[in-house]
Amino acid sequence: MKPFLLPLALFVVSAPLLAADLPASIAAQLPMGYVPMLFRAGPRIEDHRQSMLVVVHRPGDSAANPSPRPLLVFEGQANGGYRLSARNDTVVLRADQGGQCDPFDDGEDGLAVKGRFFTVQNAVACGAHWTDFITFRYDLERRTWLFDNEILTFSDPLNGAPDKIKMTHASRANPVRFETWRRMP
């Protein structure tokens, strides 16, 4: 086999296995017409229950044919299954929202988890570089997912423009739930 075909063959064989690894109780709750794009174990919540973060999209999703990419948060239940606890259709950017690159699929890891926090990592490094990292946390008192912060970075190394950073922190007095979070204009 040609050396460059082996990685391609492994990818083609392994891509469907990723979706097959999704717990059945989660797969049964995916929105109709959507398939898993990325999923990962999320933060542990009360009683040490596991959460799962699942990004879904429509088959054929591309910059030419962009699909919404809902992020679904599932919470482990006492019976071993999972319950959909939150959904946000705008936090993961679409394939056509990054210029010449896909801001979710071409950049960072997509989702990062640490402690009770998870971060959605939208990023582009095609000419001008930018990142849009949005972090949410599990609030034990309210028993829900809340916005924590957003960090936007911009740099244009080819044109020597100065780097820019914009940070937005959550208001503790007026918390924003994961499902209602939207980008500021």
- Rg, alpha carbons: 18 Å
Shape: globular
Low-confidence stretches: 1-17
The total count of helices amounts to: 2
Secondary-structure class: mainly beta
Helix content: 10-25%
Count of structural domains = 1
Mean pLDDT: 87
Distance between the termini: 51 Å
* Topology as a string of helices (H) and strands (E): HHEEEEEEEEE
Biggest sheet descriptor: 5 strands, antiparallel
Our estimate of the beta-strand percent is: 35-45%
The side-by-side strand order for the widest beta sheet comes to 5-6-7-8-9
Q: How many beta-strand elements?
A: 9
Can you characterise this structure?
There is one protein chain. The chain has one domain (5-180). Mean pLDDT is 87; it is low at 1-17. A hairpin with a 5-residue loop joins strand 3 (71-76) and strand 4 (82-88). Helices cover 11% and strands 43% of the residues. It has 185 residues and is mainly beta. The protein starts with a helix and ends in a 16-residue tail after the last strand. The protein has helices at residues 5-20, 24-27, and strands at residues 35-44, 50-57, 71-76, 82-88, 111-114, 117-126, 128-139, 144-156, 161-169. It has a five-stranded antiparallel β-sheet with strand order 5-6-7-8-9, with no helix packed on it. The protein has two helices and nine strands. The radius of gyration is 18 Å and the shape is globular.
